[in-house]
Each structure stands twice: as C-alpha cells, then as structure tokens.
Amino acid sequence: MSWCGERGLDLGNEFGKSAQTFARRLAWQGSCPLFTSPDRSRGGRGGCRRLWHSSHYGYLHASILTGSPGGQYHALAVRLAGRAKREHGALTVIPTAGSIENVNRLTAGRGHCAEMFAIIQDGTPVPANAGLELLGRLPQAESLLLLGSQGNAVRTFADMRGASIGVGPEGSGTSYLMHQLFEDADLRELDVRLSHHELPEQAQLVAQGKLDLAAFVMQEGAEFLHTVIRQHGLDIVSPQDLQGLIARYPWLTLGLIPAGRYDLVRPVPAVDKQIAQLGTLVIASPCAKRADRVALLMLLGAELPGFVRANPPVPRVPPLF
C-alpha cells in the first residue's frame, strides 16, 4: 500500500465497514516508488520524479488527531511534530479518546478543515460518505492484550462467562474492537460485562479484583505495558481458542508474546502467549492540501525507517479491453 500520484483514494467509497477492506483494494498509481510520481512531461514515458526534494517542512501547517497522552499514537505524533518544528514547520498534535473519535472528528470537520490527519487502528468503521483518504500503514502492528491477575483461571473463551472486562475510554478503538468481538452470537452467550475506564485505572481495578480483565490495544513494547504489568502483578490472558476468533476478522492476525517479554525474573509471561494483532493506519481529511500530505509522508518516512517497506508499490494491472 502506498501513496503516489496527484490525489488520494476515497476511503468513503472503498472502505465499507473495515479499513482492511479498503487497504486490500488500494491501487498504486503508476510504477514509481513511494514519494515519487510518474513524470508525464514526455508523454508519460519520462520515468519518475520526486514529489519533494528537501526535508524542509516550513510550508507544513497541519494538525493530527492521535489518542490518549502516553499512548503510542500520541507519542509518535509528538515526535513527528518535533521533527517538523526543527525544520520550521508546524504539526499540531491533538489528543483524543482514540480511533472512533478521530474518524468522527475528521468527518465532521471536513467543511472547515479544523483537523487534517488522524491515526486509527485497522478495522475502524468509516461512514460511506466520509471522503477520508488512506495515506499509509505504520510498519509495526499493534497487539490486543488481555491482562488479568497472576494465576487467573482463563484458559478458553468459555472461562470468561460473566466476566467483567475494562475496554478503555469510550470512543477508543479498543472499546469498539472489544464490543465488536463480543457481539458475535456465540460470545454474546457468555454475558461478559464490558466497561469504560482510563487505561491506568482499569489496570489498577484488575489488581484490586474489581475487574476480571482489562483490554489494551498498543504496541507490545510500549513502556506503559511494562509498567502496569510489573506494578500491579498482571499477566497476559491468552485463550487457547483465540485463533478461531481471529479467523473471523480479516484485519486481525495471530501474534506471539515470548516468555519473559515483560519480566525475565518472575517471568512474565511464563510461557509464550498467542495474541491478536492489527495494523495502524494514517488517514487524511479530503480538505488536507496535497503539500501537507506529502510533508506528513516524508515525516513518517524519516521517523519510521520501515514505513516505506510497509507500504510497497502495487503495480497497476491494465484492463483487458
């Protein structure tokens, strides 16, 4: 998936209910690497030209919706803003509850362009008429982690019957994902109780026995996870039948947390744990200027060495007739 050429692609028409659906349909415009476009100055046979020749971002004046302060989305945006500022540009970082709020705000604000960009998790629903555009996918997947107390008895989803699970702030991608998963007909029979909390709070509630589990969607190496797991004595809950759930959703993949990832002495986890993973997308409002889109892509490429590799060109297949 890549961004190349003169204009973006319409998420509203292609997206449907899932970012993954759109991502799989994303067609590459031409045969040029990321950050270049076809040079049509010689009848379309002039090869590729660079979209930008400098790392100077003085022309950049944009905003980006992220997530909760301290989370991965927000931390990345802060680093991007710092890099832009050093080159005399301006990228305003706006903390939010997460993916659902980000999509809603971009959609509602497209007329006056209050916000231009957002970071969301794959699988986030987008209205058909939103007109949002997909810029790219971050190179490192996020993990859906269910944390419980040490020695918890959850071995399968059936063991969660009647459980209370914290799912993060209302309007967050974590909340949307957990409600979506537990609305499946078979899991609905478990009568799981989902509740909204700030992330540090729900970790503490699990430690106090006031919640059975807490759900977090973030990169597995996030400092926040290391902190709450060690501070509250938590462990990763990995149902043995997790793969059956993941197979139902095309934007979910199976990942593995190795033993000792968060504590080598105790260790935590004591054995390798399977977890669900999902991608992270960068999207733009239709009102965002092309120069600002290119600048944001250049910032992402400079900050994340794997960004270009994570968005490989997909050759366009010419029509048969």
The total domain count is 2
* Terminal residue distance: 26 Å
Derived from helix and strand composition plus strand pairing, the structural class reads alpha/beta
Low-pLDDT runs: 1-46, 48-54
**CATH topology of the largest domain, what is it called?**
D-Maltodextrin-Binding Protein, domain 2
Write the H/E string, N to C: HHEEEHEHEEEEHHEHEHEHEEEHH
The Cα radius of gyration reads 21 Å
Number of DSSP helices? 11
Write up what this structure looks like.
The protein is α/β, with parallel strands linked by helices and 321 residues long. It folds into two domains: 11-139 and 280-310, D-Maltodextrin-Binding Protein, domain 2 (3-Layer(aba) Sandwich), CATH 3.40.190; 142-278, D-Maltodextrin-Binding Protein, domain 2 (3-Layer(aba) Sandwich), CATH 3.40.190.10. The protein is 29% helix and 21% strand. The chain has eleven helices and 14 strands. It has helices at residues 11-15, 19-25, 72-86, 99-108, 173-181, 185-188, 199-207, 223-232, 242-246, 290-303, 307-310; strands at 36-38, 48-50, 61-65, 90-94, 117-121, 133-137, 142-149, 164-166, 193-195, 213-218, 234-237, 252-257, 273-278, 280-284. Strands 7, 8, 9, 10, 11, 12 and 13 form a seven-stranded mixed sheet that branches. A five-stranded mixed sheet has the order 4-3-5-14-6, sandwiched between helices.
